[in-house]
Design goal:
Radius of gyration: 21 Å
Distance between the termini: 36 Å
Strand content: under 5%
Number of strands: 0
Helix content: over 70%
Mean pLDDT: 82
Low-confidence stretches: none
Number of domains: 1
Order of helices and strands: HHHHHHHHHHHHHHHHHHHHH
Structural class: mainly alpha
Length: 413
């Protein structure tokens, strides 16, 4: 039954990739069939795998930032930050990198990429910046910043860490992701010729139109600041704070509730819900223990973190880091650490999984790479961009696996 349950996950990922169907939609019936009719679980036991707390947290975050996106606040913040670079065009990719970091620190990778990428591509075209540079800036930026206690990626990681007995400290993961992503983007920036960018003749000395926030957008910014300060410093509940501030913004006329709800990534919600239910069945069936034993058999203390980076990266290249890879692999960390005799910490194994899973989404076969491809400008060679993103993804995972050999992912814990 352990092998059968794991094969169900492989089937789910493979079919969702080939048929371009949300893996969560496939995972729920697989959880039902395998759990009830093969493993012997009750229907209620299968339903108990639904991640209620996690989904509620994501909804609260997505709702308030949906308001900020719908009323134009996020667009104007992006334009304002970009204009700070002025005629220093070679700095704009880094400006967007750090802007993407800031956004994803609040909302996570997929939502952050969806918000920032269309704006960045538009500005990149205006300034003559290749889509490859703009795309890698945004994607590595959102992935690098997404491991915070209020971002979707960080929320998911903390939830999974608590389930395996870790204390849920997310900031070591944030540091590991930030440094890994920044190194990867810097290589892409150099290879992509970012250091050679020059202002277009039309824009030399040109003055961009002054960015002005209206009263509704100013109130929205104040609400976002309160959310960040309240949850980060005063430790208020993230989703309850998000829904409360969001409701106040709606009552003050700063946004439309229907438009805000439309901005919620229901694709992500379905993905996480379905795969979490299937992973719960896999755990009950002994699949997680079986996977842990196999991984431990090919590891040594020196290569454990690197192998987890490569494993996470390989899975994430064709599936979701947050919805599939982390929920599948993080539960294996305690058993892996135990089978390696305690010579490798559970924390460093988790970091290796998280970095591998979250550094590869520049792949055009993953959600983030797909967003960048969809936002690319007319006139861009899509085939060349596809190949460039794919090669960057492969090299990024290999680079992070090499970094893992130094013991870096065991630091800061």
């Amino acid at each position: 039954m352990a092998i059968v349950s794991l094969l169900a996950l492989v089937l789910c990922i493979a079919v969702s990739f080939v048929k371009k169907i949300n893996a969560g939609i496939l995972a729920i019936p697989l959880a039902f069939i395998v759990g009830v009719y093969m493993v012997g679980m009750s229907a209620n036991d299968v339903i108990a795998g639904f991640p209620t707390s996690l989904i509620f947290t994501l909804l609260g975050i997505m709702f308030i930032f949906g308001i900020a996106s719908a009323n134009g606040t996020m667009d104007k913040i992006a334009e304002l930050i970009t204009d700070l670079a002025g005629s220093r065009v070679k700095l704009i990719p880094y400006v967007f990198y750090f802007f993407a970091v800031a956004v994803s620190c609040c909302v996570g990778g997929i939502i952050g990429g969806s918000l920032v990428c269309p704006i960045a591509m538009k500005v990149g075209k205006r300034e003559g910046i290749p889509d490859y540079l703009t795309g890698t800036a945004v994607i590595f930026g959102v992935q690098g910043g997404a491991m915070t206690s209020i971002a979707a990626n960080g929320v998911i990681a903390v939830d999974l860490m608590k389930e395996i007995g870790m204390n849920g400290r997310v900031y070591p993961l944030w540091i590991h992701m930030m440094i890994s992503a920044l190194l990867c983007f810097t290589v892409c920036y150099i290879v992509g010729g970012g250091w050679k960018l020059k202002p277009l003749p039309l824009h030399e000395g040109a003055q961009h139109q002054k960015i002005v926030f209206d009263s509704k957008q100013k109130v929205t910014i104040a609400g976002l600041v309160i959310l960040i300060v309240g949850t980060a410093i005063f430790k208020t509940n993230v989703p309850l704070t998000g829904f409360t501030i969001g409701a106040i913004l709606i009552l003050l006329g700063c946004g439309d509730v229907n438009e805000a709800i439309k901005k919620i990534s229901w694709t992500t919600i379905m993905l996480l819900a379905g795969v979490s239910m299937l992973v719960n069945v896999i755990t009950v069936a002994g699949g997680i223990d079986a996977a842990s034993a196999w991984l431990a058999s090919i590891m040594t203390p020196a290569t454990a973190d690197s192998i987890m980076v490569l494993t996470g990266g390989a899975m994430s290249a064709v599936s979701s880091a947050t919805g599939v890879v982390m929920p599948t692999l993080i539960p294996t960390a305690p058993e892996l650490a135990a089978q390696l005799g305690g010579s490798v910490s559970m924390a460093s194994i988790v970091s290796g999984i998280v970095v591998g899973a979250n550094i590869v989404p520049i792949s055009p076969l993953s959600t983030m790479g797909g967003i960048a491809m969809a936002c690319s400008n007319e006139g861009t060679d899509k085939g060349k961009l596809f190949n460039s993103f794919l090669i960057s993804a492969i090299l990024s995972v290999i680079g992070c696996a090499a970094l893992a050999l130094t013991g870096f992912y065991g630091m800061f814990w």
